[in-house]
Specification:
Two copies of one chain form a homodimer. The first copy, chain A, has 300 residues and is α/β, with parallel strands linked by helices. In chain A, α9 crosses α10. In chain A, the strands form four sheets. A seven-stranded mixed beta sheet of chain A has the order 6-5-4-3-2-1-18. Chain A has two domains: 253 residues, 4-Layer Sandwich (Metallo-beta-lactamase, Chain A), CATH 3.60.15.10; 41 residues, no CATH class. Chain A contains ten helices and 18 strands. In chain A, α7 links the parallel β14 and β15. Helix content of chain A is 23%, strand content 27%. Chain A starts with a strand and ends with a strand. Chains A and B meet through α1, α2 and α3 of A and α1, α2 and α3 of B.
Chain lengths: 300, 300
């Protein structure tokens, strides 16, 4: 499974039971948390996502609606007796805030908090199954998005076919890597007869908070699922520019230029009680978009 | 109206849709906020309490479940365009945390935040209608409770009676203060014939987080409503002591010794899904107790 579960889809001011930004990305057996607005730990409970399964947290920037829930989550993990180390990727200043908040409470976390300062556009997580690259977005303060890419899995052995040949099991790894098999008589059995190609690896790009940025498509090219904020409807483009946010049309334009397969929109301003109209506007430019709705999981 | 509305009744770990500590005290036209755990601003919305009406916030101590929601509330007040100054009474270190969080976000609040460090047991708010005294409780870190006392209102002129006398209106203030009236012929009309006594002023004591403390009754003597934490049921007294918290029986004992008229109990541990049993235990020692339930207003 590679999917994104929305915990908060609202912009700065919580309203209409919509919460500040937070998303859970499930990739195989790994759960990543992106941003952690106030109330994220309650949203995790509400949607029955186990805090203990989260080993990586990414914070895009230090506006409160993207991180005020983090310290509560970190201390709750401690109260629950967590021992597993936790990786936190965030702007450097966050460490100072967390250290100060733990110090005044005289609390020492019972697990290791491994803090990784985000400094430049680079790969920040690299595992056998996936990688995470961070990239800069243009916002009022230093802000970063995250591009999560599955790695291609090995080819799968076609058990029905290999039964017809006398292939030693120690050769199976070579088959999975795409090697042909040479029989004792010298005849070659081509790999694609013996194995099945693994599914195409997929990718999810989280573009955080950003003004409309012509350089963004180049950074998140070909994402299977692209999350782009739409704080405002198209008629508020001026306000969006002034506040370093984006409109529906701008998000859809980025998705189109980035050759995204699907677009997910969120970070709705509290001035809007209903958000259906966001989708109507986006559809005019990019026809495969969805609203980020809290509690819903969107497959990548 | 003098009442206490519960926004959060749980201890450190939010659970079973119970929230960390926060209470709203309404006294006449004034709204005071005591403690501000994560999610308080959402709880204020849920129970339709206007953020704009809060001019005084009191933070008992710097464990996260009593203040992690504060920075979100303060910045939301800013986003809503607040201009009215806001008084914040809290341990000194909180100022450093708030300043740091505003600085990294490059945010300047559009209203004046008047920070008052809590240092000793003293009157911290004194208005014509009420006063607030802070007192120390015994907890793992520096912690304070708040004793809110109405002031006696002036006596009320009995209009039916004064019509029988020729009393100049400029003398009414003296009557309200309890002065007798001397008629032209020298006869005295006693004040209690002319005026009606104002209702007895009431008081609310919020005892924050505390271990069982024999000195506490002396500090909150005769409170009409006494809030005392009951993190644990009586069978967990040892755990309560170890963590500087209290049990049902201990809270009830304090209420009894303090001659409280009513007791309100809360700060329930997340280990308990149901909390009715807290009341059953308390009743064995003090028979006028109530559970602090979120969204409910308890009259002082």
């Amino acid at each position: 499974m590679f999917g994104v579960t929305i915990l908060g889809n609202n912009s700065a001011l919580p309203a209409f039971d919509r919460h500040p930004t937070s998303q859970v990305v499930t990739i195989g057996n790994t759960i990543l948390l992106i941003d952690c607005g106030e109330g994220t730990q309650m949203q995790l409970s509400r949607y029955r996502i186990k805090r203990s399964k989260i080993n990586h947290i990414f914070i895009s920037h230090l506006h409160g609606d993207h991180y005020f829930g983090l310290i509560g989550l970190l201390t709750s993990m401690g109260l629950l007796g967590r021992e597993q180390p936790l990786h936190l990727y965030a702007p450097a200043a966050l460490k100072q805030i967390i250290d100060l908040q733990l110090a005044v409470a005289n609390v020492k976390l019972p697990y290791e908090l491994l803090f990784h300062s985000l400094n430049k556009e680079e790969i920040i997580v690299d595992t056998p199954g996936f990688s995470v690259t961070c990239f800069n977005t243009i916002h009022r303060i230093e802000c970063r998005g995250f591009f999560i890419k599955e790695k291609r899995k090995p080819r799968k052995i076609n058990k029905d076919v290999i039964a017809n040949y006398n292939i030693p099991t120690h050769y199976f790894d070579a088959l999975k890597e795409g090697k042909d098999f040479i029989q004792d008589d010298g005849t070659i059995v081509p790999n694609n007869e013996l194995t099945i190609e693994a599914p195409q690896p997929k990718s999810y790009a989280f573009c955080a908070d950003t003004i409309y940025d012509e350089e963004l498509p180049g950074k998140v090219n070909n994402a299977d699922l692209l999350y782009h904020e739409t704080t405002y409807l198209a008629d508020h483009e001026e306000k969006a520019v002034a506040r370093f946010h984006s409109t529906t049309i701008q998000a859809a334009t980025i998705a189109h230029k980035a050759f995204a397969k699907k677009l997910l929109i969120g970070h709705f301003s509290s001035k809007y009680e209903k958000v259906d109209c966001f989708l109507e506007e986006t559809a005019a430019v990019f026809n495969n978009a969805q609203l980020a709705i809290e509690g819903v999981t969107y497959l990548v």
